[in-house]
Amino acid sequence: MNADELARRCAETMWADDAASRELGMQLRDVAPGRATVAMTVRGDMTNGHGTAHGGFVFALADSAFAFACNSYNERSVAQACDIVFVTPVVDGDRLVAAAAERHRFGRNGIYDVQVTCEGRVVAEFRGRSRTVGGAIVDPD
Amino acid sequence: MNADELARRCAETMWADDAASRELGMQLRDVAPGRATVAMTVRGDMTNGHGTAHGGFVFALADSAFAFACNSYNERSVAQACDIVFVTPVVDGDRLVAAAAERHRFGRNGIYDVQVTCEGRVVAEFRGRSRTVGGAIVDPD
Amino acid sequence: MNADELARRCAETMWADDAASRELGMQLRDVAPGRATVAMTVRGDMTNGHGTAHGGFVFALADSAFAFACNSYNERSVAQACDIVFVTPVVDGDRLVAAAAERHRFGRNGIYDVQVTCEGRVVAEFRGRSRTVGGAIVDPD
Amino acid sequence: MNADELARRCAETMWADDAASRELGMQLRDVAPGRATVAMTVRGDMTNGHGTAHGGFVFALADSAFAFACNSYNERSVAQACDIVFVTPVVDGDRLVAAAAERHRFGRNGIYDVQVTCEGRVVAEFRGRSRTVGGAIVDPD
Predict the structure, then answer these.
(1) What are phi and psi of D71, to 5 degrees?
(2) Radius of gyration in angstroms for the set of CA atoms belonging to chain C, rounded to a whole number
(3) Distance between CA D134 and CA A46 in Å, rounded?
(4) Chains contacting chain B through 3 or more C-beta pairs under 8 A
(5) Cross-chain residue pair C129–A83, CB shorter than 8 Å
(6) Does A121 touch chain D (CB under 8 A)?
(7) Does the CB of D121 have a partner CB in chain A at under 8 Å?
(8) What average pLDDT does the structure give for chain C?
(9) Residues B112, C125: contact at Cβ < 8 Å?
(10) Taking the model in full, what pTM does it have?
(11) Which CATH class for the D3-132 domain?
(12) How many CB atoms lie within 10 A of CB A140?
């Protein structure tokens, strides 16, 4: 199995278990070693009375893309810490895409940048720090 | 109306509009100038296959407490940027409490710390930065 | 040796080795378990042409206070990650005080908040995350 | 004057005023719209007794690269907030290079990523958030 196939197999296994991302209506679009793209449409129940999305849902989308990217090497990893800058508010019906890319891995640590966009406009910039916790996601053989 | 009453009135008005926090099953427990406490129970649809909560929902709880705290002065405020450190994973059925407290306000900016706990154990440490955007939440008269 | 004495002994040992903090003219004012206060006066060589201090020196002061606080338990610790919000610019001659206080420790990790002030005015808010790396600072016996 | 020339002129003007960066022995290597590279060699007076650099000096180098990058459009800008992850310790004599690149600009805000390396090894990952404060750095005519 090459690195791309391994990344996809890890993501499929995680996705099957990830009720939360599925319930939020996310779609895993693409995954590769150190990278992942996840999409989600803002729903009415993610917004306040003015139709603006609660920041928690924008964060959740970025966090899912981060999780698929940092687990793409078949080393089980968790989020240690994340930060997010909110650039543009989004509303009910907006289609969001979160693209996660690895910035650096060192020892058991990883740094991943996630950009959330809506039709090309930047919605949020997220940076996540991961840590491997031991164990594999799939049987590599 | 004194500062405490104003904080409560702002929170009630925001809460009535905040479908997202209500749909996530949050309860606004307490609000005062620069402070707010919000509770939420982790549900099955917030977890992955192992019953561990998706970080996005822990973030969303902290972010709601932050929003009520930074809007307690009746100056409409939004989140500019937030960071979160994940301390302990939580599972389906865990009762979470997020307590937000103002650290500093300067010009149009505010810094708020939110601690998320589960029966006294720290679950996450969140820091949010707000910015006033003009306008009031309630009519102060 | 009680916890306060141990914290002081750790700080004295670190201070003797810390040429950088001494060269920057810092004074260690106070140390206790999980807490430390360090002072520094802004010098001309820390400023740009307008007399405003370079952010790196405000950061350095906060980082030193953080280091003394997170090493106060006689478990050798290093900074993993830090963030700083700049609140008020400072100028040549300003007397800065950085007060570090532990927010939470868990496993090998610690979170410390440092407030930098100048005559009571907040200059910067810093949050540092530490990790123990094994080994003691002083012989506890 | 084209955008590259303007970026260089801004950097030269800032550099002439920036006693702090000069006193730390920094060299401005390169500047372009939204980008800057600054180098510095770790000196004995930047280290503790074990020869390891104080984090404040690594931060200061990254912060200078960030400042040149975010001021490259001739709109006077300041640092609002910065975060840094320390990857590898550095010692007396190490040659550090900080490369700043713009991630996103929106309204008066900018997000810049700075990677500090030593002979190709990553030393630190820094992210800075800037805000324009009005006024120009050079006369553009």
Answers:
(1) -100, 10
(2) 15
(3) 37
(4) A, C, D
(5) no
(6) no
(7) no
(8) 96
(9) no
(10) 0.96
(11) alpha beta
(12) 11
Place of tokens 């807490």: C35
For A88-101, write each residue's pLDDT tens digit. Answer: 999 999 999 999 99
What residue in B sits closest to C87 (Cα-Cα)? B106
| D110 SS3 class | strand
Q: How far apart are CA B52 and CA B30, in angstroms?
A: 27
CB B137 within 8 A of CB B119: no
Q: How big is chain C, counted in residues?
A: 141
Start-to-end CA distance of chain B, whole Å, equals 8
* Cα separation, A112 vs A105, whole angstroms: 9
Position B125, amino acid: E
Measuring CA to CA, how many Å separate A110 from each of A80, A117, C51, D87, D91? 10, 23, 39, 10, 23
- Choose the mutation target among D40, D63, D66 for the interface with C, i.e. most C CBs under 10 Å: D63
Six-digit token string for C70: 């997170």
pLDDT for res D68:
97
Which pair of tokens denotes residue B70?
Answer: 């930074």
Alpha carbon distance A84, D111 (integer Å)? 11
The pair of structure tokens assigned to B118 is 């589960």
A121 in helix, strand or coil? strand
Edge-to-edge order in the sheet of strand A27-32: A27-32, A35-41, A95-106, A109-118, A121-132, A77-86, B77-86, B121-132, B109-118, B95-106, B35-41, B27-32
Structure tokens at B91: 């599972």
**How far from each other are the two terminal CA atoms of chain D, in whole angstroms?**
8
For residue B110, give Cα distances in angstroms to B89, B130, C99, C118.
28, 5, 19, 19
What phi, psi does B66 have (nearest 5°)?
-60, -45
Q: How far apart are CA C71 and CA C104, in angstroms?
A: 14
Answer whether A81 sits within 8 Å of C81, measured CB to CB. Answer: yes
CA distance D81 to chain B (A): 10
Q: How far is D136 from chain A (nearest CA, A)?
A: 25
At C120, list the tokens. 């009571």
Written as tens digits, the pLDDT of chain B (141 aa) is 899 999 999 999 999 999 999 999 999 999 999 999 999 999 999 998 678 999 999 999 999 999 999 999 999 999 999 999 999 999 999 999 999 999 999 999 999 999 999 999 999 999 999 999 999 999 877
Distance to chain D for B100, nearest Cα, Å? 21
Candidates C64, C46, C70; CA nearest to C56 is C46
Strands (DSSP E) found in A42-139: 77-86, 95-106, 109-118, 121-132
Tell me which residue of C92, C48, C42, C47 sits closest to D16, measured CA to CA: C48
The answer to whether C116 touches C96, Cβ cutoff 8 Å, is yes
Which H or E element spans position A6? helix A3-17
Alpha carbon dihedral D55, A114, B132, C86, in 10-degree steps, equals: 10
Count Cβ atoms within 10 A of the Cβ of residue A5 and give its class: 0-12 exposed, 13-18 middle, 19 or more buried.
exposed
Cβ within 8 Å, pair A83-C81: no
Name the one residue in this structure whose structure tokens are 């400023």: C47
Which tokens is B51 given?
């019953």
Shortest Cα distance, chain D CAs vs residue C1, angstroms: 25
